[in-house]
Amino acid sequence: MPLCVILLLLLLPAIVSAGVPAVDLEAANCSPSSCGRLHNIHYPFRLNTDPPQCGQPQSTLRCEDNKAILEYGAEKYYVTNISYDSWGVNLINANLMNRSCSLPPPSHLFDFSIFEGLNYQRGNFACFVNCTRPIQHQLYWPVPCLSRNVNDVHVYVMIGSLRCDVMRLEPSCGFLSEVPVTAAAVMNSTVDIFELLREEFVVSWYWAELAWYVTKDAEYKIIHYCLNESSR
């Protein structure tokens, strides 16, 4: 089998999986949108009232009461800023805004493939754990309102740049939930974890776009090589 055919067959899955079409936004009638204080919304984001080709499906926003909302399943986030220069979008977890003492549901925002949506790159994680005995550890901060000493339920939260990792888990503890928090998040005895969860954090779509550009560059080079071979 000719080498260029092999290369094209190898490239095909990457082209299909990238799934980021080259869109002529002007020809597709894609003008920037606004929602409340958020202006100049454009690719890869779009409002749900904009034409489908004007943005990525996973980056579709809904405008509700002059607030831009990004939804992933049951998860709902307020979009407070989009920086196209730094490839970052500021989010606030809307599901946690009115919670004063309840375990946050685990977030799946950063579980999406880089080819499918946003990628969490610029912040910390709040990792909630439940232990059957009290823990004395510098990383474990107690959450008294979720703990029940009488039933040996001791809930703690860890804040850090690492996701919930079994290596950080004490023997008597198990994972409960993991949610993204601001990069500036630091726990101490004066910090209310539930106030911290209501602060905005930043996610990035840089790696998704980078992966597409790398794929397109490889596609160009392989096709160029095959054209040269066919002309000989």
The radius of gyration is 22 Å
Share of residues in strands? 25-35%
What is the count of helical runs?
A: 3
Low-confidence parts, pLDDT < 50 over ≥5 residues? 3-23, 112-116, 208-227
Q: Strands of the largest sheet, in order across it?
A: 3-4-5-6-7-12
**SS content category:** alpha+beta
InterPro entries: WAK_GUB
Pfam family, one: GUB_WAK_bind
Subcellular location: Membrane
Protein name: Wall-associated receptor kinase galacturonan-binding domain-containing protein
Would you give an account of this structure?
By secondary structure, the chain is α+β, with helices and mostly antiparallel strands. The protein has one domain (3-123, 182-230). Helices cover 20% and strands 28% of the residues. It has helices spanning 3-18, 193-197, 206-230, and strands spanning 33-35, 38-41, 46-47, 60-64, 67-72, 75-83, 88-93, 124-131, 141-142, 154-160, 173-181, 201-204. It has a six-stranded mixed β-sheet with strand order 3-4-5-6-7-12, with no helix packed on it. Strands 9-10-8-11 form a four-stranded antiparallel β-sheet. Strands 1-2 form a two-stranded antiparallel sheet. A hairpin with a 2-residue loop joins β1 (33-35) and β2 (38-41). The two termini are 17 Å apart. The model is unreliable at 3-23, 112-116 and 208-227 (pLDDT under 50). Keywords: Signal. Its main location: membrane.
